[in-house]
Amino acid sequence: MAAAGLTYAISMVAVTPGVVSRFRDATSGSTAAENYVTVIWLVGALAPVLALLFVALFVVLGAALRRGSRSARLIAVGVCALGLVTGLGTLGILAVQRAGDPVSGSIAEALDQAYPSGWITLNFAVAIAQVVGYLVVGALLMVAPREYFASAPAFLAPGQFVAPPSQSEWAAPQTKPFVTGGSEPDQFSHPAVLPKSAPGQEDEYWSRPHE
C-alpha cells in the first residue's frame, strides 16, 4: 500500500507541469485560472512528501507489528480508519465532479480536459483500492489473536512466572552488630569448632604406645 501510494504521488508530480500548461492555454491565464494553478502545484508538491511520510510510517508499524507491539496495533487500526474515511471521501468528491457534464467554455471543463486521458478513471481505481486495502488490513488486525500482542516478554509463555529465590540459612541477615575495636568479641572472633568424630581402633592404639 505504501509503495502504491508513492507511485501514484510520483505520477501526479510527473503530469502536473503538462496539466498546468494546457490549463493556462485553455483559460488564457485568467486570474481565476491562476488560483486553480496554485492549488494544482500545491497538491503536486504535497503528494510526494505525504507519500514518503506514509512509507516511513508503514515500515515502522510493520516492524512493530511483527514484534507483537500492542501500541503499534492500536495505531495501525487508527491509520486504517483514517485511510478508509479519506478513501470514501475521495470517491464521493469524484462522484460529484462526474455527476454532470461541465459547462462548455468553463474553467471546470478546461481543467478536466487538461488532465491526461483516463486520469479520472485512475483516481477512481486508486480510491477504491485504498478503501479495500484499509478494510483488509483493519480486519486482519482486529481478528489477530490477543496472545500475539500480549505484553509479557517473548521468552515467557502466557501465565508462566519465575518464583523468587528463597533465602537459605547462610544468606540470612546478621542480627549482631560488628565489633572491631573493643574488648568484646564479635560474632566472627570465635574459630569454628568442627564436630568430633567417634574414635576408631587405630586412634586408640596410637594413644597407648606403651602397650
What does this molecule look like?
- The chain has six helices and no strands.
- Mean pLDDT is 77; it is low at 152-156.
- The protein starts with a helix and ends in a 5-residue tail after the last helix.
- The protein is mainly α and 211 residues long.
- α1 (2-27) runs antiparallel to α2 and α1 (2-27) crosses α4.
What is the structure about, briefly put?
By secondary structure, this protein is mostly helical. The chain has helices at residues 2-27, 31-66, 70-97, 107-114, 119-143, 201-206.
Rg measurement, Å: 40 Å
Quote the beta fraction: under 5%
Strands, total number: 0
Number of helices: 6
What distance separates the N and C termini?
Answer: 104 Å
Biggest sheet: strands, sense, closure?
A: none
**How would you sum up the global shape?**
elongated
Structure class: mainly alpha
What's the overall average pLDDT, rounded? 77
SSE order, one letter for each helix or strand:
HHHHHH
Low-confidence stretches: 152-156
Considering DSSP H and I runs of 4 or more, what fraction of the residues is helical?
55-70%
Which tags fit this structure?
mainly alpha; 211 residues
Topology overview:
Blueprint: H1 2-27, H2 31-66, H3 70-97, H4 107-114, H5 119-143, H6 201-206
Helix pairs in contact: 1-2, 1-4, 2-3, 3-5
